[in-house]
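User: Predict the structure for this protein chain, please.
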Amino acid sequence: MGIATTDETKSKKFNLRATPKQEDLIRVAAERRGIDVADFIIESACEKAKQTLADQTRFVLDQTQWDLFMDAVQCAASGHSPN
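Assistant: Here is the predicted structure, written as structure tokens:
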């Protein structure tokens, strides 16, 4: 799963520092995936960024919380107060 598309040019540079253990871990993982280290790092960072942003737009409610939420939405839509 590549992140860059064929019509995008890579023009930005990240300078990173890693411990030798981190470097070895990343290098081995990239080799196993059959991609170079830079592509592995960018792909991994983009996936983590997507997860982080998705976590900020989704939430989980139990049934009671859901019912209260829906009541509030319906009241707001009708112009009434929830209580």
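The radius of gyration is 22 Å.
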